[in-house]
Amino acid sequence: MSSVDPSSRFARSGPEGWGAARSPGVSPSTHGNARAATEDSAAGLTSRVPERVGVLGGGRMGSGIAHAFAVAGARVVVVERDRESADASGRRIRDSLRRTAERSATAGEPLSPLDALSSAFTITTDVSLFASCGLVVEAVPEDRTLKAAELARAEAAIAPGAVLATNTSSIPIEALAESLARPERFLGLHFFNPVPSSQLVEIIVGSSTDSAVVDDAFGWVSALGKRPIIVRDSPGFASSRLGVMLGLEAIRMLEEGVASAEDIDAAMELGYRHPIGPLRTTDVVGLDVRLAIAEELERTLGERYTPPELLRRMVADGHLGRKSGRGFYEWNDR
Q1: If you ran DSSP here, which 8-state letter would residue 258 be given?
Q2: Closest-CA residue to 168 (of 241, 75, 218)
């Protein structure tokens, strides 16, 4: 067993970074497309997803993660806290599969039959069904205490050789690992909403994470058709630290009357070629999620991440963005 040395892994960037150093012959530019799985196999990395994958928490993110692994060929066990939540998760997954099938049909792309994909899921309240999973991803809400408790519960149910991952957006991996007996089998897999169509997954590596676990995760993410990036454990990692800062400043500008939401977003979309502006992004992510991440980063990085009062008010009023039908924009396609 070998742990990862962050000082050596992050001393270099670009092609000399983790992917090339750990997997000779694999170009970082190929990770995230269909060829990556084959090339990773030739380099000695995992070339397919585990046969069985567990997801703890079947909300918007958990359902999306389950969807992605099922489409890649895994059988997926989703564990929810009660039967009502499990039923809601099942509906979310079916709706997500249906939308993907409709988009693929429109584009003329082949896709497994909807009923075949649906049969790949077991949605339950019984955490003991994780015992046969090679990977379990925790995807409960962004609350440090809740995540630590749920990760410990999942670890107690899985096999010693299985990998446990958290989908946290901002909570340090080291803090969550404190509740675990096997931190060397633990890392972060930060997926992005909406999971089925997003192209990026952050792999967050703790000081105890075994290097073989990182290699496996890199291969699994590539097999999903997504681009893996390796990030050292730190508050907010790479994406949230940058994205939340931009989003909070955009909200402050709206609060101060600098410009309308549409014009603030247009400034970034047209002026800086961002595919989607920071306020629209916040609506898609969820204002409640953005607030939770900002509060976590404020605790660890200071007042530069203090949430604007406008964000707090909108969350308190139930204006959570796309999922509630209203945020900085009106949404009719929930």
Answers
A1: S
A2: 241
